[in-house]
Amino acid sequence: GLAIVARLCVAASLITSYPMVFFSVREQFCDGLGDRGRELWASRPDAVTVGLLGAITAVALRLTNLGKVAGFAGAVFGIYLIYIAPPLMALRALQRNIGEQPKGWKRTAGAVVQVMLIPLGIALGTVGTYQVLMK
Predict the structure, then answer these.
(1) DSSP characters for the chain?
(2) Distance in angstroms (rounded) separating the CA atoms of residues 39 and 134
(3) pLDDT by residue, tens only, the chain of 135 residues
(4) How many Å separate Cα 128 from the centre of its chain?
(5) pLDDT value for 134
(6) By the 8 A CB rule, do 30 and 52 touch?
(7) Cα 87 to Cα 117: distance, rounded to the nearest angstrom
């Protein structure tokens, strides 16, 4: 009963969301290649799509533990979102005088703390990634 409905809902979600995700992957891939990627996309869009889809499918067929992929993504992107991106944004806002900025020693102390969070995030990300990959 409900299990069948749940399976159908998951299948519908996967079928309808995959094209949107793949579109972004294809765009990022072509942008990452620079001018060559844009030329390739303009001249042979079907080859780019089939090649990327084939590569993704080959990797998916080789993976046996998706928990490791999810753990790796969590270690890398989670640490980036918590420890690295906010200090970078705060330092950039400080540099451009965006928003209310403290003056004097509070400004300097805030900047020092933000700068110290970045290597901390890199260290924690390295440890987390190592732990995931060594399991």
Answers:
(1) -HHHHHHHHHHHHHHHHHHHHHHHHHHHHHHHTTHHHHHHHHH-HHHHHHHHHHHHHHHHHH---HHHHHHHHIIIIIHIIIIIHHHHHHHHHHHHT-S----THHHHHHHHHHHHHHHHHHHHHHHHHHHHHH-
(2) 40
(3) 899 999 999 888 888 888 888 888 888 988 988 899 889 888 998 999 999 989 988 988 888 887 888 888 888 888 999 999 999 999 999 888 888 888 889 988 989 999 999 999 999 999 988 998 887
(4) 16
(5) 86
(6) no
(7) 7
Interacting residues of 94 by C-beta distance below 8 A, sequence separation 6+: 101, 107, 110, 111, 114
C-alpha–C-alpha distance, residues 29 and 43, integer Å = 15
Cα dist from 26 to 2, 13, 36, 69, whole Å = 36, 20, 14, 20
Evaluate if pTM is beyond 0.85: no
Distances (CA, A) of 89 to 3, 98, 120: 45, 10, 16
